[in-house]
Amino acid sequence: MSEPSYGHREGGHSVSQSQERLAELAAEYDAKDELRGKRAEFVLDDTVYLDGNSLGALPAAVPAKVADTVAREWGELRIRSWTQSGWWTAPERIGELIAPLVGAAPGQVVVGDSTSVNVFKAVVAAVRLSDGPAAGRDEILVDSATFPTDGYIAESAARLTGCRVRALPVGEMAASVGPATAAVLANHADYRTGRLHDLPGLTAAARAAGAVTVWDLCHTAGALPVGLDEHGVDLAVGCTYKYLNGGPGSPAYLYVAHRHQAAFDSPLPGWNSHAEPFGMRPEFEPAKGAVRGRVGTPDILSMAALEAALGVWEGVSVDAVRAKSLALTDFFLRCVEAYVPEGRVVSVTPVAHAERGSQVALECADAERVMGELIARGVVGDYRAPDVLRFGFTPLYVGFAEVERAARVLAEVLRG
Ligand SMILES: Cc1ncc(COP(=O)(O)O)c(C=O)c1O
Ligand SMILES: Nc1c(O)cccc1C(=O)C[C@H](N)C(=O)O
Do 397 and 274 fall within a single domain? Predict the structure, then answer.
């Protein structure tokens, strides 16, 4: 992973940095920031918005696109829009916009439903792609610190497929996959701590053991290179409302590697998964390709918002986003160390770049009240029970001066 070129390195913090010096540095980094022009493509105010790891900010192109979809495509063209406005093919067309952001060649990503629903499709399909319980593969390995929905759905998928769930810390999974493992479900980054997990290593270990991997990319897609094809991932899912800025409840996506598409057996075969949906035939014949991961009618208004939102990626390299993300989180940790009274917060986000996503999580006594105070003072992060302050850094619109301000305000709140 390449070092950011913003002039400082992890581990190089100095507690004696003065506020003036850090403010100067922030200005220097902002001046050098090759992504700084992107901020103008979002609707933002002078709030420091560090919650893009939960809901990304509104891209400025979205309102007009949604208005046109409502007024012209729906209001005037009505039913004709399924073909004339490209509504019917939106799931695969928008999938192609997401594909390069997660390192997938065309034809493998389809958009639709929520992440939760796609976790269900993928985990059941993963068990069906494996040798399965009849051949002694009856274990689904799950990340024990997972975002809850993945764990709940894995349990249900296990009951439906005759498997059992074994929950383990992600770091122990690679050494634990074995001849009984059918599927492995893991988060690429931990939603609470921001820890980045070893996707290449765990994927390779699972493959060597004959298991099928499902990665949840909610906290990494749009923040760092994922490399789905490069690392031989089998199946993946993710949401689009965090670093992809698709809007509240925007549709999620499902990745099915080319080599699995012919055998991908969705547990939710709807008429949109059919090879000939308008044939209206009683027998199910799956569509070819990732399209068989579709289920029912696409939610066009949300898709319109998402499609417009993805326009901000024009000319942006994910490597540049990653370099800035690491520089932002490094700088935040450095400012927190310089400003915050000793012992008031403890970072639970790894210092090593290879283990860090795009958020910083600070354990803090009275975290819920502290976050309320921060928000009241114009610094928006979020709080996760029982004691974590989360700050998400979206490189497309967060700048270094904002990072310095966030740490300064945090220190003011903590000093009382
Ligand atoms: C890692 C992870 N997986 C799944 C979800 C749930 O997604 P959804 O509510 O869109 O189904 C979230 C966030 O809500 C998440 O952070
Ligand atoms: N999806 C959310 C929602 O509908 C309301 C509030 C928050 C969310 C989130 O996405 C939470 C987020 N996945 C998390 O990492 O905590």
Answer: no
The residue whose two tokens read 């014949």 is 285
* Number of independent structural domains in the chain: 2
Centroid of ligand 2 to alpha carbon of 116 (angstroms): 12
Task: Work out the number of other CB atoms within 10 angstroms of the CB of residue 366.
Answer: 12
Ligand nearest to the CA of 191: 2
Which secondary structure element, helix H or strand E, spans residue 258, and what is its range? helix 258-261
pLDDT at 127 over 60: yes
Q: Which domain holds residue 126?
A: 89-297
| Final residue of a structural domain among 297, 328, 345 | 297
Closest residue CA from atom 6 of ligand 2: 54
| Top mutation candidate among 53, 55, 111, 116 for ligand 1, by most atoms within 8 Å of CB | 116
Residue whose CA lies nearest to ligand 2 atom number 7 = 54
In this prediction, residue 258 has a pLDDT band, given cuts at 50, 70 and 90, of: very high
Among 50, 54, 359, the mutation site with the greatest number of ligand 2 atoms within 8 A of its Cβ is 54
Burial class (CB in 10 A: 0-12, 13-18, 19+), 31: exposed
CB 273 within 8 A of CB 288: no
Domain annotation covers residue 291: yes
Starting from the CA of residue 114, give the closest ligand: 1
Question: 282: domain CATH number?
Answer: 3.40.640.10
Going from the Cα of 95 to the center of ligand 1, the distance in angstroms, rounded, reads 18
How much is the mean pLDDT over the chain?
95
Q: Which residues contact residue 343 at a Cβ distance below 8 angstroms, ignoring those fewer than 6 apart?
A: none
ipTM of the complex: 0.96
Task: Verify that 259 and 342 share a domain, yes or no.
Answer: no
Give the domain-ending residue among 244, 267, 297. Answer: 297
Active-site residue set: 147, 216, 241-242, 390
Run of H or E residues at 388? strand 388-392
Does residue 106 lie in a domain region? yes
State the distance from the centre of ligand 1 to the C-alpha of 108, rounded, in angstroms: 21
Determine if residue 146 is labeled as part of a ligand binding site: no
Examine residue 335 and state whether it is found in any structural domain, yes or no: yes
* CA 174 to chain CA mean position, Å: 22
pLDDT of residue 17: 53
